[in-house]
Amino acid sequence: MNRFVRNAIAITCLLFNASVYGQSTSCAAVNLNHADTLIFNCLPNDTCVGLTAVLPDIRQTANTANAYLVQSVPYTGHYPFQMTGATQVLVNQDDAYSGVINLPFTFCFYGGQYNQIVIGANGTLSFHELYANQSCGFEMCSNGTWYPGPANPGIPNNFSSSQWGWDSYPRNAIFACFQDIDPSLPAVNKGIEWKLEGTAPCRKLIVNWRNIPQFSCTSNTTTFQCVLYENTNAIEIYVAEKPACTTWNCGYAVIGVQNDARTQAVAAPGRNGAVWTTNTSNSEGWRFIPNGPSLLQQVSLLNASNQTVSIGTVAVSSPGQLTASFANACVGGVAGDIAKYYVKADYISCSNPMNGFGALDSIVLIKNPITPSPTTSTITYCQNQATVPLTASGTNLKWYTTATGGVSTLTPPTPSSATVGTFT
Q: Helix (H, G, I), strand (E, B), or coil: what is residue 8?
């Protein structure tokens, strides 16, 4: 089982305001909701603290309705649209699929498990490897007598061209930005490319369509990206710009996912066979998260000897994210005592229940020494007798002229003997 130790956190009994870490879909990760160092001088009984952690709600894929949750995400999460070392595909080829691309990890999609994928020139990816090196469709509406189109341009859609014999809406597909674009047309720095990045078990496939002209509206270019993440099986789509060519294919475009039978699909809101435009001033991002049964087994609190101290209480905090809570992590009551704990999340693999992966975060509890109270003694003076500055034992002493409040000084005060009485 793979385990990842994240940020070590030093804690000293009392929690200040916790800072929440952003949860990523790129890899399984547990993050404790506490700053790196939380320091205070403990009272004798301050030896325990409650802990909370956030972790991804990784789920199995399912071939059902509502199989994915779709979220709008910040466009700033995109990867470079031109990657060093990327493999170019479909160079100057219109309406075609790439050859088979072999994935080094299993990607789960609509209940299936896949190690191969093909890229479509019209903004799609498909796990239906029989499409490799074949023609890909584009029809989203009828164009007079030239070609027929579907009655409904959105997904799910099983329309296939009777004229050309291809699946206009591909099977087992990710519609990264499905539209009729033409890589064979000239454009500055155009390209379709893919690249694998990261290390197991947190690898990702990145596919770019960059500056690809639209068919018919040839001065319009579109740029977008699709990212597939290992183990979380999340899909992210980033659209830098996508004009609308309303004089061709009715100007329609789709962002979404569709199963192999083309009977189930989930689309981004407002992006399902509609006329829409994105430009560089309002570029957008979308995330599709599997919504099947949970793959989380448990979240445990372990001590430094790898023994289970307690099992966390887990709740959904937001779509795609969980919060785990532990009542107490404790340290000894003697000054200088140290206790180290780990929060560990265990998941099973979507492709093999016998395999799993996990993530760790660690925390250290330190019992600070208790600062002793300063000691003083009573001093007696006769009226108008000469006095000397007060003294006390201790470290880092601060002096006040009132019992509560007031402003401190590091200089010991000199009492006055002009008035008879008792003074503190």
A: coil
Separation between Cα atoms, residue 333 and residue 124, nearest integer Å = 61
Rounded Cα distance, 139 and 135, in Å: 13
Contact yes or no for 53/21 (Cβ under 8 A): no
Cross-strand pairs, 393: 375
Distance CA 53, CA 128 (A): 39
Per-residue model confidence as pLDDT tens digits over 139-149: 999 876 678 88
Structure tokens at 129: 């490897």
d(CA 330, CA 380): 48
Q: Are 138 and 95 in contact (CB under 8 A)?
A: yes
Q: Can you tell me the distance from the alpha carbon of 133 to that of 129, in angstroms, rounded to the nearest whole number?
A: 9
DSSP 331-360: --SSTT-EEEEEEEEEEE-SS-TT-EEEEE
Nearest CA to 235 out of 372, 332, 381, 110 is that of 110
Output the pTM of the full model: 0.80
CB 63 within 8 A of CB 111: yes
In this prediction, residues 52-61 reach a mean pLDDT of 95
